[in-house]
Amino acid sequence: MRTTRLEAFSDGVLAIIITIMVLELKPPGGHRLSDLVHTTGVSLLTYLLSFVYVGIYWNNHHHMFHLVRRVTGGVLWANLALLFCLSLFPFTTAWMDDSRFAQTPVVLYGLNLLIAAIAYFVLQTVIIRQEGPESPLRRAVGKDLKGKASPVLYLTGILSALAIDGGGHAGVSIALACFVGVAIMWIIPDRRIDRLVRQYDTPD
After folding, report:
1. Which residue among 18, 31, 195, 200 is buried most deeply as judged by most CB within 10 Å?
2. How far apart are the first and last CA of the chain?
């Protein structure tokens, strides 16, 4: 089976996720900039963070499937698991926003990021096993330092929110800093994958 239908379905799901998140934004009650900041300011920041994460997954997913020759049942199910994890973003983002970054919603948001990262790793692993150790994707992934560092930072954030200053905001602030840090780390493109995608798409 070719990858075209899987990519089209995944693109549609990610587009719906972004649409749901933006519909959660509340319009200001007044007409001044202060009304926007008071009513929607925090929501815009949480939306921006989750939008960036969805964009990162879409970008990496797009590049990854440029290096995949065929799709098996295992790949389909692993891809669905990833989409399920990402589809929880509107819920966890909205709860974190409505609670004004209370401890439990922030921890749940971190867990959502963690399971999405695990699901992506599983999908990547299933594809590499299918394509073989000499596959273009295996060469592109390399040591995958960012992929290994991300779960560590997510766990650091989750544990900080749980263990540090439970009644205050210090632990939550550290958690949010970890989540933002991972997003910034992944925004920087991986040139190895870009090079291999160009080589793979270029006819001999």
Report:
1. 18
2. 23
